[in-house]
Fold each of these.
Amino acid sequence: MNSIRGEGPIMYVEKKDTSNDVVLRHVVREDLPIFFRQQMDPDANWMAAFTRRDPADESAFNEHWAKILNDPAIIIMTILYQARVAGYVLSFVMFGEREVGYWLGRDYWGKGIATRALVEFLTHLKERPLFAHTAKDNKASIRVLQKCGFSISGEGKGFARARGEEIEEYIFTLT
């Protein structure tokens, strides 16, 4: 496996945590087809709301990921659960503010994986404040952010491509 992104603002020391079987590592090329399949799930897109225009467009997916992986301001790690690719966690700058986000394949929902992955990610990402946005009806994501110390700091609206309409969102902050 060739590491796509082995450098960046955080130094990550990979370790095997047998207490929860959630491990973060740098993204490798072999992860991308898995991410593509995961992001094609219509229920996952509905929950995430703010998604790609056409999840089935593999060419657009590959272009998007090439940009992500070559942008030094984006920090992204693959989430492994029991040695399988479960999704990813990332941080990026939007409108001058550092944000966090995550994606899990449906097979990994409801197991506390996103929370454990974000907790681990945050130990390496020292910049504060951090922000996150989530649809107001995405209760699972709201719980993950609150468990990780984020609190609601505002509300907004945005066009959710996955839903084809403007929706309300919460803005979360970690100080």
Amino acid sequence: MRYNFSWSASIKVILMCAALLALVLAAVLAIRPALADIAPPQMPPGSNPEAETIDTKVRMMEEKVVIEVLEETNPDEMGTAWVWAEFQMKNMGDVPERMMVRFPSSFDDGISGYPEIENMLVSINNVVVDTARVNRVGVPDNWNDPVQWIEFEVLFPVGEMVEIEVEYGLTGTGEYPFVSYGYLLETGVGWYDTIGSAEIIVRLPYAASSLNVFVDSSPWGRTTAGANLSGNEVSWYFEDFEPAYENNISIAMVWPSAWNKIKEEQQTVWDNPQDGDAWGRLGKMYKEVGRLRRGTRTDQGGDCLFNMSVEAYQKALELLPGDALWHAAYADLLVWDSVYGYTRSAEARAQFIEALREMYIAYTLDPEEPYVLDYLESYVFPREAVDLEGGEYIFYWLTQTPTLIPEEAAPTQTQVLPTLVPIVTATPEPTPVPPTQPPVPTLEEETPQEDSGGIKLPFCGSAILFPLALGIVAGFPFLIRKRN
């Protein structure tokens, strides 16, 4: 059988295949999870020391590591920490060993950069020793490129305990308002036998809770399982273990400067409980530390912060019912939490419609407000929900016109003071009943409780719980606008 060959026909087939492939790739990309957050470049973590030789008889008997997160001197810079670590080493063999001990001091950040740990100081038996920089491939499997290490010589006499102490500065990884720190235990795998015990402590400049530490999974960051939260410390303890990748420590948390703003706004609300703008700013602050690039935090603390932000905004609108910006800011909170789920969930759709209703109120109160107009022009709401028609925005999805409260309507004169903000801890205890004249609210205690329907909810707010607010919009750059 003979076949007729046509170049023009072949080219057409090739072009059709290319177009089909492009459509397939577009479809694949379109179904990527919408809530996946982009990871920022990695900064170097702290780490255990590495032995020079693989046949050493020197064992790491115990170690203690303290990572102290510092208050930012410049709120616009990434958070920094100071690391102090002590290692008790013992030669279990029959002959003395002299070797070079190493710490990785640099890291491939994933974008062709190699940031370094700063100001490392090493002591052996309380005597500061000289160190040298060497270029070598890292121990973890994913370190493929040579990076900077710091090494120093140590003599390990037979049967004697040798104390190695190191100190250095550590820069966090992340983007406002979240930061993470890491510590590699796996670099200690080369020492003899198991590690006897290890205590890792991250000391925060504020009380640790699920609101400011990601104690369970989140699309943004990871805190190593088994963390104990007590006071201002997050800690882990291990005994008789062979260090591996799964033992490495990480903590994801809120920037200290962002958390301090929350406490400042709390104080303002406490001092001025009838100040609607103060309640609104408080709601914005809760919103800022409870949201991600896409959607809101899905961990326990994120759920709590969302509820607290809702209550703060509602209080702001009770006091300032005619304020278009606070209606729009509240709408933004509801949108951010429901925009990726309103097509799949009746609950999310109801919340999305409520957000649309709040934006409608804001638009009706002030149709020239730039923040509202920018939001409506941004395609956050689909065009079938709201669109420009004849120079005016029509809210098609609103079957009933929301009741607008006149701006001149006087707010309630009921004196409502904010309650203490509880904090979820690793070992919840019943929340004590506050005294008649409670002290200035703090974020120190929190415990779960059940509602009247028997559904377990985090005890993070009540009808009068004051929420904390920060940026009206963290995700849409064009929506950022300050209020005096």
Amino acid sequence: MDTKSSNRIKKEAEVKVLTEKFTRAKSVVLADFRGMTMPQIQALRIKLKEAGAEFSVAKNTLVKKSLIDSGYSGVKDEDFQGPIGTLFSYEDEISPIKAIVNFKKENSLPEIKFGYFEKNYISDSEINQLATLPSKPELYAKVVGGLSSPLYGIVGVLQANLRNLVYTLDQIRAQKS
């Protein structure tokens, strides 16, 4: 009886940790990691950590309970078949998704099952579509480029007027001499 209560306490603590992770995460991807070697899992974890994310493995029942406790929608029992690893994106929603999709392209694993974006259920095909979006730094660069482009145009127009004035004055000087 004592072991059951200690197991229950451990599980409740794990659910609490998972719930905190799900609450903090901007996006979540759940993937079947069967067939991956330990070096592959470590390589994936390193790539995801560089992208500001974390990959962890827990029992499906605990993950499902934590998802529900965190207020995620569309939690389905049939999605939790086989071992599932969870990707938590804490900083950027898209970069870790790109990292796991690119890792899958290179290694054919893990098999992405489903995920959540802003606590809304997304399918594996939607995850692949999200991976094609530009990252935040790329979007910032495009916005800055778009804003600075008209300024460069104005500078060019103003320089052209000054240049034309100099040419005109030079022509007048040449005619008078």
